[in-house]
């Protein structure tokens, strides 16, 4: 997605350890105009597959997800993150390990908001090691919901997440795919001819 | 705001201890159409006062805030919540006590995203004891930013928050004001003739 790549080039900063900081428009400060374009792009890609619900994780997934939800006219559910859950009654839960923070968080979704009748689109802000999306997939499986696709705002294609998700067989649509951050240079994956 | 009050009446549930659950459309599952209407309503109320930035708190403030940001064409910043902050370099911080969870959280905003040149609109999903908004006001003060108003989606007018915020003198616009939840009945504050 050209507009997003331009924002990443212009406002993203590369920190040591292959960290891409995009907190001027996605992770801390949010650019609503860009997020609407991002949400519309996801909606456009998945509008024919009968999505009934969008599922994301707090907090940075919420903005792109609500705009996709608006465009598809479906509700959005965000999984909550907690160090550890004490009460798990009526919750679907999964444990997600963060390599950057080196800690595990439990994520959860109320059983009231996901059912086996749902066809869901998973949306997240970043795909790096893939643990967060795998956690969402586990929650979808617990609910018996059908996963129609995975929408990622920024994918670090050089980390293991993409490969892990491809093994699941679900359609993945990443709006910006970063091939490398070496030498503090942002290089995008070249567009494939066939999507 | 009539549409919001209808949603609260239809989908809200009252739990013991004056708790109003609205997680079908605001706190866990999000109704994007309603959130857009909410955001537009805030934008309409504060469109003449030169807002340069909207500030909210993760996670439930984000959806209404991004739609207000879209309508006003300004960026949104969400304060992050943490049990305790270890690194506070380059952060505005404030401690917020939650009466419901009986714990304090530090909230923070990067100094990169708030400045003394900003005129801000604070948005939050709930006003009960007012501690979260007071925390945001403290952060605004640290930044030297001007606060042009406070937008609240649902106010529990029978708790102390409203009175505490009124003392600050900033304009408060609550879209739904709940007078009482006694006997598990939701009663709204009667509309005032003069806004």
From TrEMBL, chains A, B:
The keyword Ribonucleoprotein does not apply. Residues 49-157 form the Phosphoribosyltransferase domain. Keywords: Cytoplasm, Glycosyltransferase, Purine salvage, Transferase. Coiled coil: none annotated. It catalyses: XMP + diphosphate = xanthine + 5-phospho-alpha-D-ribose 1-diphosphate. Its main location: cytoplasm. Xanthine binds at residues 20, 27, 156. Homodimer. Converts the preformed base xanthine, a product of nucleic acid breakdown, to xanthosine 5'-monophosphate (XMP), so it can be reused for RNA or DNA synthesis. This is Xanthine phosphoribosyltransferase. It comes from Listeria riparia FSL S10-1204. The lineage of its organism: Bacteria, Bacillati, Bacillota, Bacilli, Bacillales. The gene is xpt.
